[in-house]
Design a protein that fits this description.
The complex is a heterodimer of chains A (179) and B (242). Chain A is an alpha+beta fold and 179 residues long. Chain A has five helices and five strands. In chain A, strands 1-2-5-4-3 form a five-stranded mixed sheet, with helices on one face. The longest helix of chain A is centred in the N-terminal third of the chain and has 13 residues. The longest helix of chain B is centred in the C-terminal third of the chain and has 16 residues. Chain B contains nine helices and seven strands. In chain B, helix 3 runs antiparallel to helix 7. Chain B is α/β, with parallel strands linked by helices. The interface between A and B is medium-sized, with 20 and 23 residues. The structure holds iron/sulfur cluster (SF4). The site of iron/sulfur cluster has 12 residues of chain B, from helix 6. The site of iron/sulfur cluster (SF4) has 12 residues of chain B, from helix 6.
Chain lengths: 179, 242
């Protein structure tokens, strides 16, 4: 892994790799670096498997983080390629031509985070939600509790108990349960 | 036969109605299979088909009145109670508990309960857990396609008050707002024994003539439809799927 990392670093002028385990490393790249790096990893280094493509909403920094996790099945190691996108113009180049499965991930990201992938097949169609009109629900500024209270009627009489305190009370009723 | 066919042709509107002329469907485009179209029959004849008019009943559901004397109605109810045919439609985690019921260990069949593959053959819809809005749409269509007399059982806390999905953006919290529930079975998830007990209770309700969900649905059809359409924002199907 170390040799591969240093090779990649010289070849693509990448920033620091974060070595999470012996067989799992992460690197953050720029938009221009992404495609050549993915291609190189897929065709030359044996990372033929797109394990997942997912997003994180760093709302405080106004950033979406995309993670492309690639797997080398024979060597049993993974590389995660991270990419930061500005939150307000969330749009990224599609990689469905590298891995056809990416189209499905991109459709999901489009629906749940509102990150656009122009040219990705069927990216504008409904994926899991149907007729969704609000903010994309995985964005952190979407208030799911508020939405659910506004959309679906509550039934009265619902009680919520603190699980830890309640179990203590039930399991050890004789003990002092104040603290 | 020919007359009928000609009548059918006569009924066709001159020009294709615009989608926005359908008040029920608002400005959501109807599903592809519901769009009016012209098909060519094997003999070369062109037939105009408007699926919403031709394939679906235009009238709403009707209330089924009890038989003329009590004793006959009791006999009917006894018969109904003894053959509960469940639509094999699992919605949430609770559906997993129906499998042991179908198989020899708990064997619900010995109580005259069995599972059917289509709504037309079933008279009991078990909503087995949380219902996402998307599934609710399918559940409504399945329910409406079932023949009278029909019953709905809600399984698990999710159907009652949202259960652990109480703050989810995509699951309904009170099933009886959208479908007429005859009986709830509590638990998360209810064990097969609880289900058997529940079916037994449902039988008692039916025999007492108290399982009137389908009639309630017919009587309050407007209210149910309003509730349903409030959450199903892309209503692109017939108002009543019968
Ligand atoms: S009540 Fe519990 S078991 Fe049933 S659908 Fe809800 S979470 Fe799942």
């Amino acid at each position: 892994m170390q040799t591969l990392i240093s090779q990649l670093q010289t070849r693509f002028q990448l920033s620091e790799f974060i070595l999470q385990r012996d067989n799992l490393a992460f690197v953050t790249v720029t938009r221009e670096q992404l495609r050549p790096l993915l291609l190189h990893l897929r065709d030359k280094e044996g990372f033929t498997h797109l394990v997942l493509l997912t997003a994180v909403d760093w709302i405080e920094d106004n950033i979406f983080q995309l993670t492309y996790l690639l797997g080398d099945r024979t060597a049993g190691c993974d590389i995660g390629v991270r990419l930061m996108l500005p939150r307000d113009v969330a749009s990224m180049d599609s990689i469905h031509d590298l891995w056809p499965t990416a189209a499905t991930y991109q459709r999901e990201l489009r629906e749940m985070f509102g990150i656009d992938f122009p040219e990705s097949p069927r990216v504008d169609e409904d994926f899991i939600l149907e007729g969704w009109t609000d903010l994309p629900p995985y964005r952190r500024d979407f208030d799911t509790l508020k939405y659910s209270q506004e959309s679906y009627v509550d039934r009265l009489g619902r009680e919520t108990k603190d699980p830890a305190a309640y179990m203590k009370l039930k399991l050890y009723p004789d003990e002092d349960n104040d603290g | 036969m020919k007359d009928d066919f000609e009548k059918l042709l006569d009924q066709q509107p001159e020009k294709e109605p615009e989608p926005q002329e359908r008040p029920a469907l608002r400005d959501i485009p109807v599903r592809e299979e519901l769009v009016p179209r012209t098909v060519t029959a094997p003999d070369g004849q062109e037939i105009r088909i408007d699926p919403l008019q031709d394939y679906y009943c235009q009238a709403g559901p009707t209330v089924q009145t009890p038989a003329y004397t009590r004793i006959i109605e009791d006999l009917f109810n006894w018969a109904r109670a003894e053959s509960l045919w469940i639509l094999g439609f699992g919605t949430g985690c609770g559906a997993i508990e129906m499998r042991p019921l179908m198989t020899p260990r708990f064997d619900a069949y010995r109580y005259g309960i069995q599972w059917r593959p289509t709504p037309r053959q079933a008279n009991l819809l078990v909503i087995s857990g949380y219902l996402s809005v998307k599934t609710l749409k399918r559940a409504i269509r399945s329910y409406e396609q079932m023949q009278n007399p029909k019953y709905v059982v809600g399984l698990g806390s999710c159907t009652i008050n949202g259960g652990m999905y109480w703050d989810s953006y995509n699951t309904i919290k009170r099933l009886d707002d959208y479908l007429p529930v005859d009986l709830y079975i509590t638990g998360c998830m209810p064990r097969p024994e609880a289900l058997l007990q529940g079916f037994d209770d449902l039988k008692k309700l039916i025999r007492a003539g108290k399982a009137e969900g389908a009639n309630k649905y017919a009587e309050n059809f407007e209210r149910y439809k309003t509730n349903q359409k409030r959450v199903i924002k892309d209503w692109d199907m017939p108002d009543y799927s019968w």
